[in-house]
Design brief:
heterotrimer; A mainly alpha; B alpha/beta; C alpha+beta; B: alpha/beta; Glutaredoxin; 2 domains; 7-stranded mixed β-sheet; 6 helices; 40% helix; C: alpha+beta; 6-stranded antiparallel β-sheet; 18 helices; 62% helix; globular
């Protein structure tokens, strides 16, 4: 029971933090661009890259934001055409539950071990 | 006893990791987006290269044959090299080639075609590059093969060469 | 050429001496003499010596542009400046492996001659374990990554070194990084030896602490150099991208930091013995794992070396042999010391160190899982995903808050049992910190709540460590290192909220007005250097306060390989960096320029140096304690 409570607390804590963990950005546009991978570069985001591909994506994202599309919709658009690989933040789906949850579980496990040691 | 359980779990886990890494090695390569074989032809509207009139994808691909979509530009050096292969393909009756002129200057593009020949049954302009994104492309040249069910069955990144030409010929038979 | 021949045969000789050394060491293990066989010391020197010769031969080949050597051909060019010809030696796969061998053999030699007061069997066992690693690497080099392969006919010119690698920070980054990274091999070998000899105790802790410190200090500085290079050279103003190769250097650092703190406990009390062994094994294992990940081609990143699966398989098998070996030794030989646990009082330094380890292991798991999960997913389900900065930020940043708070208490608590004497002072500090943080943060468009707490807790640590300097009974190394850490987090946070950027296209002669001032594109200058031609843009930037900055970003066209790079011009001052980078815009006379103002950048580097300084102080203390 206590474990469950701690777990929920941790998740809540993270969600509050998550709500705005984007390192400050003037607007949505830059945030999205930083989250898109430049596919012709090695490990750079579209925001940081000056490649042909990146400039096209930059225009595209701007257009879609002006059309009122949400962040999620834009990512979805790109994911459909390029695969999950193109977005830096792994979305939470059946493929990535383990990815997101495992570190937190290990954190709780560590906590439990320490608790035992201190008893 | 507890130790033995820990040990067995750890050993099993390590063997699992080893197998994964081993397989990861054998399948590793520079990432190319998985050619989503179920990817249907995107629906779009584009401007015709010569007439500047709008044309829909439905109309472009209405015939019951194979289509090749080729993304090209006059400023793209490898495009020159692959052009003769496209000319050869255009002679086939099983296929029509649709060109996507990517981020190009219209006059330069026309000069390119006049100089090297026109294999395209229809040519479209993609001034801002958005159309190529619809196809999931990220550079130029790229070539897509579309079958009679309007599904993209193969994608070639980079210029077509003798080998890929033969591959294409096999597909469109 | 001759140098390559000498280099190759030196390696063979080195390997022969490795075997000989192992033989003599095994024999001496069972000899009744109390003193170590002098042959061992001589042989370990010879083993090191021939690796040095081999390494020097490779450098020599690079400096002379001897293209009959395949490695030189692949990675160098006659027009490269001398400094980069030399550093090009270790800027490639084969050369860097030679560097691995150099550090491995150096460290075991130093270990043997510096551990005279340690038990003989322990010293020899350490040597033997290290020999396993050394011989493994000798074989790896000779079988799959020979730096002395002959090319015929001899080419006239080499393929050159990627120009972005031609940078001073990057030139010294590998040697320093390896001293840390590869240096953890000694900790690994020593820990296994100590387990077998039942020597995991305070005396061993005092002895191994120096080696942990050396490895940790060099690793910290090495990582910093890599970040500095990324910041100055790659042109986007970032210094850490959670790229797999970066993560791979961070992971051993996390375990070494945790280990360092546990060693502090073990020095005084017989506690955490198993955990210390596990961390020692883990640090080097992670180094090896990292080597595997970046050299085998299994991961894609900005700086993967050889994409050669054959090499990958060798390292993979080698890595798992080491893991199973260390695991086996741990389970068979390790005796849990009689439980000292009854003395684990909750309010004590020991507990703080446990908490530190808890968080370090959590951070480690985030980085490790984030880095290798895509591989697992790809193999199991053929789905390729990216795990990028947002993942790491979301999972790490929230946890920094409790971590920083625990650091405050950890530093002031005493060993065994403690109380918090100046509770009021702490509460005052905390309140002041949060208040200042709030007043600062509300001026920027960021999440007020999150950043107030983050900056507030960093300030809290900052103030408490600053005050600690005036305490005569302080532990200097701890105070300096923790102060450095608080400064590190603080600089990063302040930098991220106060940085600003403007991007626009300009042509020569234009002026551009933006919120913070004006950018004037004065002119273009063309330059010719030894191995590149460049276009230099002269810009004059006047900000709203009237300060003028003259920045000259460049576009360079290198001759071999033909690559165009964009070199940012960065003016660094104590308070901020002004960062200007220029790129071409296709097809016309316009240039895209990106101007950034980044406050407190320099403090990020200074704080890492401070953290390392804390380590150095501890090292000197420990050395003089004899």
């Amino acid at each position: 029971m206590r474990i469950l409570k701690t777990f929920l607390l941790v998740v809540l804590f993270i969600n509050i933090a998550n709500a705005n963990t984007d390192i400050k950005d003037k607007n949505l546009n830059n945030k999205i661009l930083k989250n898109i991978r430049c596919l012709v570069c090695q490990g750079q985001s579209v925001y940081d890259s000056e490649s042909e591909f990146s400039s096209t994506i930059k225009l595209l994202v701007k257009k879609k934001i002006n059309e009122g599309k949400s962040e999620k919709q834009i990512y979805e658009f790109l994911r459909k055409r390029y695969g999950d690989w193109v977005i830096f933040e792994p979305e939470l789906n059946k493929n990535t539950y383990i990815l997101w949850i495992l570190p937190l579980l290990l954190f709780l496990l560590g906590g439990a071990i320490i608790r035992k040691k201190l008893k | 006893m507890k130790n033995k359980i820990y040990l067995s779990v750890i050993i099993i886990f390590l063997i699992f990791c080893f197998v994964i890494f081993y397989n990861g090695l054998n399948s590793s390569n520079i990432y190319t987006p998985k050619i989503n074989t179920k990817q249907k032809l995107p629906i779009f509207e584009a401007k015709d290269f010569y007439s500047n009139k709008s044309i829909s994808s439905e109309e472009l691909f209405k015939e019951d044959i194979f289509y090749i979509v080729n993304i090209w530009a006059s400023w793209c050096v490898p495009c020159r090299k692959e052009h003769k292969f496209l000319m050869e393909l255009s002679k086939s009756e099983n296929v029509k080639i649709i060109g996507l002129n990517y981020k190009d200057n219209l006059n330069n593009a026309k000069k390119f075609i006049n100089e090297l020949g026109n294999p395209y049954s229809k040519n479209l302009t993609d001034k801002n590059g958005f159309l190529s994104i619809e196809f999931g492309a990220y550079g130029v040249p790229e070539t897509f093969i579309i079958n009679k069910n309007k599904t993209i069955v193969k994608k070639f990144i980079g210029p077509i060469n003798k080998k890929t030409l033969n591959q294409i010929i096999q597909i469109i038979k | 050429m001759l140098a390559s021949q000498i280099g190759y045969y030196s390696l063979i000789l080195g390997l022969i001496f490795s075997f000989t050394l192992s033989f003599f060491a095994t024999k001496d293990l069972t000899s009744p003499s109390k003193k170590i066989d002098q042959n061992i010391i001589v042989l370990s020197f010879l083993q090191f010596f021939f690796v040095v010769v081999s390494f020097l031969c490779l450098i020599f080949s690079f400096v002379n542009s001897d293209f009959s050597n395949e490695t030189v051909f692949n990675n160098s060019h006659t027009t490269k400046p001398l400094f980069y010809k030399i550093s090009g030696t270790w800027g490639n796969h084969e050369g860097s492996l030679l560097l691995w061998l150099l550090v491995l053999t150096l460290f075991i030699f130093l270990f043997i001659i510096k551990s005279i007061n340690q038990p003989k069997k322990y010293r020899i066992s350490t040597l033997l374990f290290q020999q396993i690693i050394i011989i493994g690497f000798f074989l790896f080099v000779l079988v799959t990554s020979n730096p002395f392969i002959y090319v015929f006919p001899v080419p006239n010119e080499g393929l050159g070194l990627n120009p972005i690698l031609q940078d001073p920070a990057l030139a010294i980054h590998p040697p320093i990084l390896y001293l840390g990274y590869v240096g953890s091999s000694i900790i690994f070998s020593a820990a296994l030896a100590a387990v077998i000899q039942n020597y995991i105790n305070s005396e061993w802790a005092k002895h191994i602490k120096k080696w942990v410190l050396i490895s940790w200090i060099f690793l910290s500085i090495g990582i910093m150099l890599g970040s500095i290079w990324a910041y100055y050279e790659l042109g986007w103003g970032g210094f850490w991208f959670w790229d797999p190769v970066e993560n791979v250097s961070l992971m051993p650092w996390l375990t070494l930091t945790a280990l360092l703190h546990c060693i502090l406990v073990l020095e005084r009390r017989l506690l955490l013995t198993s955990w210390v062994v596990i961390l020692s094994i883990a640090s080097f294992t992670l180094s090896m794992c990292g080597t595997f990940l970046v050299r085998s081609g299994i991961l894609n990143s900005v700086h993967t070396f050889a994409n050669d699966p054959a090499r990958g398989i060798f390292i993979l098998i080698f890595l798992f042999i080491l893991i199973f070996l260390s695991l086996g030794i741990f389970f068979i030989f390790h005796k849990e010391q009689y439980k000292d646990n009854k003395n684990f009082f909750w309010l004590s330094k020991e507990t703080s160190i446990l908490l530190n380890n808890w968080f370090m292991m959590y951070f480690l798991s985030v980085v490790l899982i984030g880095t290798v999960y895509p591989i697992f997913l790809d193999v199991i389900s053929s789905d390729k995903i990216s795990v990028g900065p947002p993942f790491y930020h979301k999972l790490i940043i929230p946890f920094l808050v409790p971590f920083l708070i625990f650091m405050v208490f950890g530093s002031i608590l005493k060993w065994i049992k403690s109380e918090i004497s100046n509770k009021n002072l702490l509460i005052i500090f905390f309140t002041i910190s949060i208040t200042i943080s709030f007043l600062v943060t509300k001026n920027f468009q960021v999440d007020l709540f999150l950043y107030t707490i983050l900056i507030g807790t960093s300030l809290f640590l900052f103030f408490t460590t600053t005050v600690e300097f005036f305490n005569r009974k302080k532990i200097l190394s701890q105070t300096v290192a923790h102060f450095g850490f608080s400064l590190f987090i603080l600089s990063i946070l302040l930098n991220s909220i106060t940085s600003s950027e403007v991007s626009t296209n300009m042509k020569v002669g234009e002026r551009y007005n933006y919120e913070g001032g004006e950018i004037f594109f004065k002119k273009i200058e063309e330059k010719k250097e030894k191995n590149f031609n460049s276009i230099v843009g002269h810009f004059k930037i006047t900000d709203n306060r009237g300060d003028i900055f003259n920045l000259k970003p460049e576009l360079r066209v290198y001759n071999q390989p033909i690559i165009i790079t964009s070199e940012a011009d960065i003016k660094t001052t104590l308070l901020k960096d002004n960062f200007l980078v220029m790129n071409t815009v296709k097809g016309n006379e316009y240039f895209n320029i990106r101007y950034q103002v980044k406050p407190f950048m320099l403090w990020i580097w200074i704080s890492v140096l401070l953290i390392s300084l804390g380590g150095m102080i501890s090292f000197l203390r420990a050395k003089n304690e004899k």
